[in-house]
Amino acid sequence: MFNNISIIGCGLIGSSILRAVQKKNLAKEINVFDHSKEVTGFLKKENICSNVFSDIRECVKNSDLIIIATPLSSYKEIILSIKEHLKKNAILTDTGSVKKEVIKIIHNINLKDVFWIPSHPIAGTEESGPKAGYPEMFEDRWCIISPPENCIEEPIKNLKEFWQSIGSKVKVMSAEKHDKILSLTSHLPHAIAYNIVRTVINVEDKLKQEVIQYSAGGLRDFTRIAASNPLMWKDIFLDNSENILKGIDDFAEKLQELKKAISDKNGDKLFQIFNSTKEIRKEIIKAGQDTSKPNFGRKKD
Amino acid sequence: MFNNISIIGCGLIGSSILRAVQKKNLAKEINVFDHSKEVTGFLKKENICSNVFSDIRECVKNSDLIIIATPLSSYKEIILSIKEHLKKNAILTDTGSVKKEVIKIIHNINLKDVFWIPSHPIAGTEESGPKAGYPEMFEDRWCIISPPENCIEEPIKNLKEFWQSIGSKVKVMSAEKHDKILSLTSHLPHAIAYNIVRTVINVEDKLKQEVIQYSAGGLRDFTRIAASNPLMWKDIFLDNSENILKGIDDFAEKLQELKKAISDKNGDKLFQIFNSTKEIRKEIIKAGQDTSKPNFGRKKD
User: Fold this and answer.
1) Domains, chain A, ranges and CATH?
2) What is the value of ipTM here, to two decimals?
3) Reported pTM
4) Which of A69, A75, A220, A228 could, after both became Cys, cross-link A215 (CB 3.0–4.6 A)?
């Protein structure tokens, strides 16, 4: 579909795109740039892409599709480095979890003759780095794209088809709405997961080993999320701060309600709180967003 | 090992004990009492126990081991009903997640000629009821027992061996310490999971369908815990309120710290927060408490 695809940043997400493109034979050439020698060394050793570049300008200059898959805080520098070297009518996209700030950056840079269409594949694991990537990562997962209002149809259609060809279901949504919804479904849950793990492991150091030992009672679920890439998450929290702060305030208010019900020994209220969340999982399973198997179907290794 | 075992309350946990005892042939007779006709009807139909009783006194009168596996709020009534009908030197145990209140109840009732030894098998799923039980539930899971200080060794040894024979690893711990540790590893995480699901599904009703649709970004992990039995959890929160309230206060304090770092756009502090929790999952996996497979190894059904 594309003659030449460039992937900038080849960690968990970038290397999974790379593997999917290779596996499905979706490009004649696939170029990779990553500033880490460890990453490029790994890619060369594994022999999973046509070209590994050490000069980002060389990497992108013949590409029809350029995908930025780095933490959000690197975008500005990357876009400034490549802006004069992009092919006319190339599609520039990304994989970031927040859209507001990057759209501001692009606006200020004033890109010419290039179609900028942000993407967010909602996929991943708690792992990081190119070793952890795999080609099926995007299968049956949503990818949200947020084209600027003035963008013409053809590049949007081509980008949609690209994500679909690696298995994604694509949804077009405004950047503003994307940032709001993701603050609820992803960013706030991550904030809370980090916060509970941090609370529990710090409370009393002498209990730490026992907390680990008996974590199967519930805590272990949270530690999965809290093991995610800290650099990526720092950037997300800076870029989507407004929505996340609103979410934290709502959460804190509900927590005080729960606290009051416990202090008051109000059994009816507690039952009502715990019962109100029971149905949502069924809806999530019905929507194909999780397994119906108890305990996520996990078995011991 | 035991001639006659009684299980009072045959939901997820009780029916799993029942199935494990049957499968491993650990008792000559196994009796069940449950106040729900739906449950007893199911047990008779499935033919998985020797005797289903409608009179709790008849159920326990010949038993050497009696296991209460009901929500905590039923304990008092159950123990009052059976106390005059227990066999001399029988072992009375339970499966409850909090120990403080039940020990108070037992103390006030003044049981005679019976060995009361509380148990807590740390096992379960988000499902409820006897259909959801399975015999392997306790394999490689911890079971904490909290014998009273004056209890003699033999019944402790026998109860230990019972849990071990259905696959558990047994740890002896004071009731007070048990309630503290479980408040951190299980009760606080449940409070937080309920709270985030309640926050997110209520924030804006018009977004609810989209929140469900994109829940794979993190939220779905929390909905598993928040789908657990609300009646059981209400009782846990009433009985372990002191420890849980302390946990909520610590959590709320840490959350304000996180909120401040976001408001201040303090990237270093955010990175430090997100990085501090990264190692704990490795320790949990090393302790055999979770799978090392990404995303809990879940695959779509």
Assistant:
1) 2-173 (3.40.50.720), 177-297 (1.10.3660.10)
2) 0.93
3) 0.93
4) A220
